[in-house]
Amino acid sequence: ATSLDATVGVTREDRRGGLFDSADGRQAVDTLRVDAGLAARRPVSTGVFVGKAAFVRLDHDHRYNTETFSDAHDALMLEGSYLWSRGRHTLVAGGGLDWQRYDGSRDDLNYSWVTPAVFVQDDVDVGDRMRMSLSARVDRHPEFGWLWSPRASVRWALDPWDVRVSAGRGAFVPTPFIDEVEEIGVHQVT
After folding, report:
1. Does residue 160 have a cis bond before it (omega within 30 degrees)?
2. What proportion of the chain, given as a percentage, has pLDDT over 90?
C-alpha cells in the first residue's frame, strides 16, 4: 500500500549565561529552528519506491561578551530509492541530493554546497542464522570532490544474542562548527 508521512517542527529558545556582573563575560544565544520532513513508499512492479525529503533552518542571534552576530544554517536532503528482492538478495539502489548552506557575519566562513550522490546495497541471507550486507555510496562534493563510502557487515543470530561485525569508511566534510566553537563563537575562528 502507498503511504506518506509528514512532520513539521518549530523550536524557539532564548539562552543567557556567563558572568552577569560583567559585560565582558556575558553569553547569549537566541535560536529559531524550523524543520520538515516527508517520507513516501509506493509499490511499483516487483519492488517498492521510497522517496524522502527533509529540510532544516536554524537561525541564531549570538552574543559573546560585547560582540554580537547572527547566522543561519540551512539543510535540504532529497532521496529516492528502489527496493526489490531476488532469491536470497534484497537490493536497494538510489540517489540523493544534499544542500548545505551557512550564512553568517564572516564571508570567509560562509558556504553553499549542493552534493549529489548514488548508492547501492545488497543484503544476502547466507543461512538461517546469518545475513551479510554490502553497500557503497559515492558523493560528488563541489569543494572536496569524490567521497567514497563502502561498507560490509555480517550478522549472526546466536540465541539469545545477535552479533554484528562491520567494516567500512565514510566521510564528513569539514566545517568550523566543532564543540569548542559553541563556547567562544565562530567569529573567533582563525
Report:
1. yes
2. 70
